[in-house]
Description:
The chain is an all-alpha fold. 35% of the residues lie in helices and 2% in strands.
Amino acid sequence: MSDDGRNGQGGQGQGQGGEQxxxxxxxxxxxxxxxxxxxQPRLSPQAPSGQHPYGEQSPSGQQQPYGQQSSGQQPYGQQPYGQQPYGQQPxxxxxxxxxxxxxxxxxxxDGTVPLWAPLYGAGPVESIKRFFQKYATFSGRASRxxxxxxxxxxxxxxxxxxxxxGIAGAAGATTAVDGxxxxxxxxxxxxxxxxxxxxxxxxxWLSIGVRRLHDVDLSGWLILLNLVPYLGGFVIFILSVLxxxxxxxxxxxxxxxxxxxxxPQA
Length: 266
């Protein structure tokens, strides 16, 4: 084989070797042209201009690598400083607790509701106790619980005494000539108690009725509607069911030693 053939094959092999890879000791090859001139920024020989190799961060102002937060952004799930978490109101926006029924309830020095003030949410024992303690007090107000617990207990007492008197008077009962029945002697003790309860509670029933009307911000003289047969009692029943109104506080007459009651603490 001639020397020209061998030289041609050697040049072809060198060209193929240059295309296939870089020989050891050779300068880096720049795929997009000649190396940059002195003083110009040198880019990676493996990445085109404007692109950055994997693992290197882009200049400031461009998109950050996945999983890293850019400057000025908070990590996911964390609130910026000074902002409330989602679903929670700022402390200044929370309204203070309001008094029950919209009316300030005064308290005595020991923390209890004074006798001259209405007791909202009263139980049966407290209601009956106040019923007799304010026997003839027509000033002030009475809550619905005070009024209706008294009505319920009074009704139960009359029913129990009536049934007990009927059972006790059945023994020895007689029938008169005109057909009327006369109870036996066992009825009279129950009859006496019934009469005492009925006559002894007339004044407290009037006073608590007036105070209940005051709690609805109505005049206590409306209690006289009970004198009107049928209709009067029905009207008083409807009025006594109504809820309290703040304007009813004008009927309160505090005790002298409690002229300036304190309000409940929030």
